[in-house]
Write a structure and sequence with these properties.
Blueprint (H helix, E strand, L loop, with lengths): L1 H25 L1 E10 L9 E6 L5 E5 L5 E7 L1 E8 L6 E2 L3 E3 L4 E2 L2 E3 L4 E8 L2 E9 L4 E6 L8 E6 L1 E4 L3 E5 L11 E5 L2 E5 L1 E5 L4 E12 L2 E11 L6 E6 L2
Parallel strand pairs: 1-8, 1-9
Antiparallel strand pairs: 1-4, 2-3, 2-5, 5-6, 5-7, 10-11, 12-13, 13-16, 14-15, 15-18, 16-17, 17-19, 18-19, 19-20, 20-21
């Protein structure tokens, strides 16, 4: 009489194992996106590096002929960066990979080359060349939000008052102004000016605003973002 019971338990354990395997498969999703330059031309062969925030196991891929990439990953919180020769290395804020496909796009900036002379005892020995990004970067931990996500702001100029930090964009050359770039989770904001209130965790993007969240892309005169809570809240003032 013991053998049927053992057989029954074996069947139950097998079903549990199969169920766990099926659940593990369901908990994977695709991360996709497109990498462009500032002229909206696709960038082929850019290296996409993705790293799980907990395990820190990096996974990389490169963009295809149409500038796109595609990686399948378990659900979780990830860091991502992009590198391509001639362009400034770019990273963005940590993001949550969702059960449905997640889209994160990038716009890369051509990196200026700075030459430095090498002197030894006042004598010329040669020179070195290195890329120098035209923007500065600042990061904030948004602790009241769930999972402690971060906010990353790339900017050219910065001023601070008692309540807020004011950012302006950066110039790519004498005739091209790029704007401030702020990223948080799946959100990317680009604007002429950005105001961040660290106490209320509110962002206000002003002037030629481009708002991206996944595949959604919206242009506006002004966008306000409240970073409290698991899901940010948005207010738009659309272009006329």
């Amino acid at each position: 009489m013991k053998y049927p019971m053992l057989t029954f338990l074996g069947v139950i354990l097998s079903l549990v194992a199969l169920s766990s395997q099926a659940q593990a498969v369901e908990e994977r999703s695709f991360l996709t996106g497109t990498v462009l330059d500032t002229n909206n031309s696709v960038i082929v062969g850019a290296t996409i590096m993705v790293e799980d925030r907990i395990s820190k196991n990096p996974i990389s891929t490169t963009t295809t002929e149409d500038g796109t990439y595609r990686i399948q990953l378990p659900l979780g919180i990830y860091r991502i960066s992009v590198n391509k020769a001639g362009f400034c290395p770019t990273r963005r804020a940590d993001f949550r990979l969702r059960a449905s496909n997640t889209t994160i796009n990038f716009t890369l900036v051509v990196c200026p080359i700075v030459h430095s002379l090498i002197l030894e005892n006042g004598k010329y020995k040669g020179e070195t060349a290195r890329n120098q990004p035209p923007f500065k970067e600042e990061e904030f931990s948004i602790e009241p939000s769930s999972e402690g996500l971060n906010l990353v702001i790339q900017h050219g100029e910065r001023t601070e008052t008692k309540k807020t930090i004011h950012y302006k964009g950066f110039a790519l050359n004498d005739r091209t102004f790029f704007g401030v770039v702020a990223t948080y989770d799946l959100i990317t904001l680009r604007a002429d000016r950005l105001v961040f209130d660290r106490k209320s965790l509110r962002l206000r993007a002003e002037g030629n605003v481009v708002f991206e969240m996944g595949e959604k892309r919206t242009r506006a005169l002004l966008v306000e973002v409240d970073l409290h809570g698991r899901e940010p809240k948005f207010t738009f003032k659309s272009q006329k």
